[in-house]
Specification:
It is a single chain. The chain has 348 residues and is an alpha+beta fold. It folds into 2 domains: 226 residues, P-loop containing nucleotide triphosphate hydrolases (Rossmann fold, 3-Layer(aba) Sandwich); 101 residues, no CATH class. Helix content is 24%, strand content 38%. The chain is globular.
Length: 348
């Protein structure tokens, strides 16, 4: 194999079909199905134990499913060894070789694939330039910062021209400012190379920054799938809304149809609210509602006494005595009675 490989075909497609996996008689993955195409980045978003890393290991060929298929362009890969899949993997702990310099770390996979030396040198220079690390080519990796090491790890994954890139919490060990900078760079690199990518994280800001589509996992199932903007606007369930921190989830009971909103009047512990809802409900049904924290000119009115005020960047998170919270541009006093108009969404 040499570096003079043909450009990847535009119809590359990874597909997972009903992937199931158990561990000690407990289900880890329960019927996972989705597809990923050229130039697309999907983020697997969920808490620890939701099945994200297990799913990556199955795609990489480091683990096997109990049921289901992993296909690439329609070919089942379940029995294909990891080293023959040509998928790149970037880890949180970088997994660099400490005794090798930057060049040797990036060149390692190419030499294992028996690339010619002049082709190795050209490719290493290309990918180090791509990740803005060309000037570090002979530096020891142990002398690099965390962000620089992660760039080298990315260059090493890119070097063999992988068909697919996978990232397992790659920025979890970095501080916020550096993480945001690397996220922007990584998104640009993925768009330029058009390599399909799977990105695992528990951080919603990372997920929404990097992803074209977000798959929210809980208990080994995909609970919500969509574009970042769609998932944010329509979380779909109480679990998703709470995980994303979209506002306060409250319970309610359908009282009667609301003519004004073409929805329902709902009885809650905070009073009767008027909501629009496209779900099929009947009088007396218990439903979950999301009280959005952003104040609006029109919406349901909530009143309460200020229990706490927390400064967050350019606004104040104001927590009321009954547990609801809203964002204010200026800070009210503790104990002050306030009145807020806010949007209320029906979750299910």
């Amino acid at each position: 194999m040499t570096g003079n490989q043909p450009t990847q075909p535009v119809d590359n497609k990874l597909e997972l079909i009903d992937i199931q996996k158990n561990y000690e008689n407990q289900p880890l993955l329960r019927g996972i199905s989705f597809s990923l195409g050229t130039g697309e980045t999907i983020c697997l978003l969920g808490a620890s134990g939701s099945g994200k890393t297990t799913l990556l290991r199955i795609i990489a060929g480091l683990d096997t499913p109990d049921f289901g298929m992993v296909t690439w362009n329609g070919i089942n890969l379940v029995s294909t060894p990891s080293h023959l899949r040509n998928f790149g993997f970037v880890f949180q702990d970088y997994a660099l070789f400490p005794h090798l310099d930057v060049y040797e770390n990036v060149a390692f996979g190419l030499k294992m694939k028996t690339w010619l030396q002049d082709e190795v040198e050209i490719r290493v220079t290309e990918v180090l330039s791509l990740v803005d690390m060309k000037g570090f080519i002979h530096r020891k990796v142990t002398d690099l910062s965390g962000g620089e090491q992660q760039r080298v790890a990315l260059a090493r994954a890119l070097a063999p021209r992988p068909k697919l890139l996978m990232f397992d919490e790659p920025l979890g060990a970095l501080d916020r400012a550096l993480r945001e900078d690397l996220l922007d760079q990584l998104r640009g690199i993925l768009k330029r190379t058009e390599i399909p990518a799977l990105y695992v994280t528990h951080d919603q800001e990372e997920a929404f920054t990097i992803a074209d589509r977000v798959l929210m996992l809980e208990g080994g199932r995909i609970m919500r799938e969509g574009t970042p903007s769609d998932v944010w606007a329509h979380p779909g369930s109480a679990w998703a809304a709470e995980f994303l921190g979209l506002g306060k989830v409250i319970d309610g009971n359908c009282k009667s149809r609301a003519v004004k909103s073409n929805g329902w009047k709902v009885i809650t512990a905070f009073g009767i609210v008027d909501i629009r809802c496209h779900h099929k409900h009947k009088t007396g049904d218990k439903i979950h509602l999301l009280v959005r924290p952003k104040q609006t000119r029109e919406g349901n009115i909530f009143r309460g006494s200020v229990a706490d005020v927390v400064f967050q960047q350019d606004q104040f998170k104001v927590i009321l005595d009954q547990g609801l919270y809203f964002y204010f541009q200026s800070a009210p006093k503790i104990g002050q009675m306030v009145e807020v108009k806010a949007k209320v969404d029906c979750l299910e």
